[in-house]
Every structure is written in structure tokens, then in C-alpha cells.
């Protein structure tokens, strides 16, 4: 007979050390992109309603970052490393770029 397995010991410090830098519930990269987009919207429209666009964009990012903080980094990696192949419509899938 084998000995019973020891229970798994969890240390909460490890999760904090592996999470990306966050600011107001979203990753820092997303926050900077949100700031840049909001600034451009304000400069183009000249309206202070750009703040509403920033709040809406931030809310979307906050909800996306609740489960997986690196969701946008993973998406960017997927899009850059796995482009559409010419026969995507036939096979319904992509392949990694060589």
C-alpha cells in the first residue's frame, strides 16, 4: 500500500508575484491604451463626453480582467502569432506562423 498523499499547501504570496501590474482593476498596458484612445477622441471631437467613452472602455477592460488579467496580452499574442491562413474557410482553423 502507498502512503496517503499530503494535502496541497498554498501560499498566497505566489499569486501576487505572478500577476501583472494593475491600475484601477485593469492591466497597466490597457490603462495606457485607454488613456491614449480617450485623448485622441477628445482631440478629435473637442467634447468632454470623451470621458464617458473612457469610462465605458475601462468598464469593458475591468470585466475582462476579472477572470484573467493577461487577457489582452494573450489576445495580442494570438493575433500576431496565428494569422489567418489562405484556406481558413475550407478547414475552419488557423496554423502558427513559422
Stretches where pLDDT is under 50 for at least 5 consecutive residues are: none
Radius of gyration: 21 Å
Structural class: mainly alpha
Q: What's the pLDDT, averaged over the residues? A: 84
Strand content: under 5%
Largest sheet: 2 strands, antiparallel
Alpha plus pi helix count:
5
Give the terminus-to-terminus CA distance.
49 Å
Number of strands: 2
Count of spatially separate domains = 1
Shape: flat
List the helices and strands and how they pair.
Elements: H1 12-18, E1 22-23, E2 26-27, H2 28-45, H3 50-67, H4 71-81, H5 88-91
Antiparallel strand pairs: 1-2
Question: What's a concise summary of this model?
Answer:
With 98 residues, this protein is mostly helical.
Describe this protein's structure.
With 98 residues, the chain is mainly alpha-helical. The protein has one domain (18-91). It has five helices and two strands; from the N terminus they run αββαααα. It has helices at 12-18, 28-45, 50-67, 71-81, 88-91, and strands spanning 22-23, 26-27. Strands 1-2 form a two-stranded antiparallel ribbon. β1 and β2 form a beta hairpin. It is flat and about 75 Å long. The relative contact order is 0.11. The model has no long low-confidence stretch (mean pLDDT 84).
Amino acid at each position: 500500500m502507498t502512503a496517503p498523499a499530503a494535502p496541497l499547501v498554498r501560499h498566497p504570496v505566489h499569486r501576487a508575484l505572478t500577476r501583472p501590474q494593475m491600475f484601477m482593476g485593469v492591466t497597466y498596458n490597457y490603462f495606457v491604451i485607454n488613456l491614449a484612445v480617450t485623448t485622441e477622441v477628445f482631440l478629435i471631437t473637442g467634447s468632454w463626453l470623451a470621458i464617458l467613452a473612457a469610462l465605458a472602455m475601462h468598464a469593458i477592460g475591468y470585466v475582462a480582467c476579472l477572470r484573467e488579467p493577461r487577457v489582452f496580452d494573450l489576445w495580442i499574442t494570438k493575433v500576431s502569432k496565428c494569422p489567418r491562413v489562405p484556406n481558413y474557410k475550407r478547414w475552419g482553423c488557423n496554423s502558427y506562423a513559422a
